Recover the amino acids of this structure.
């Protein structure tokens, strides 16, 4: 534990076991309002999800709440207790909507290249080479343009 008290062995505050789900919906709403991407801190997420302290195992809870509400985040290591062994409330984290948008496809392809066609995501979505897009991605892009 850090001497300044920024690192804790965390847990749910007494009497707030049910607040995390509603707060996670609030995080999703903030991401939607922010255009699908926001920058926040571990401390802000911790508070919004109803935790008193920020500890290694709270990181897993934060991860689960975000992913459970259709949100991704990066850098991924910040919510991995095996790597981030002394989480700090001021550590910055980007949270984004896993909504199939161009942004989400590119971020996810970069963060999880083994599960995605990185060339298609980067060439087709960033460089505008639409022939690299899968049929569903082409339809999504048409809808995105039409709704702009």
């Amino acid at each position: 534990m850090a001497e300044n008290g920024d690192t804790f062995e965390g847990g749910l505050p007494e009497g707030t076991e049910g607040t995390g789900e509603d707060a996670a919906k609030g995080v999703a709403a903030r991401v939607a309002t922010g255009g699908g991407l926001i920058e926040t801190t571990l401390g802000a997420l911790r508070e919004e999800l109803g935790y008193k302290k920020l500890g290694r195992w709270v990181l897993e809870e934060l991860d689960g709440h975000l992913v459970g509400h259709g949100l991704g985040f990066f850098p991924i290591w910040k919510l991995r207790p095996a790597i981030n062994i002394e989480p700090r409330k001021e550590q910055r984290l980007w949270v984004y909507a896993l909504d199939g948008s161009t942004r989400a496809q590119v971020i996810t392809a970069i963060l999880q290249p083994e599960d995605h066609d990185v060339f298609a995501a980067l060439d087709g979505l960033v460089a505008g080479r639409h022939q690299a897009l899968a049929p569903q991605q082409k339809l999504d892009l048409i809808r995105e343009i039409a709704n702009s």
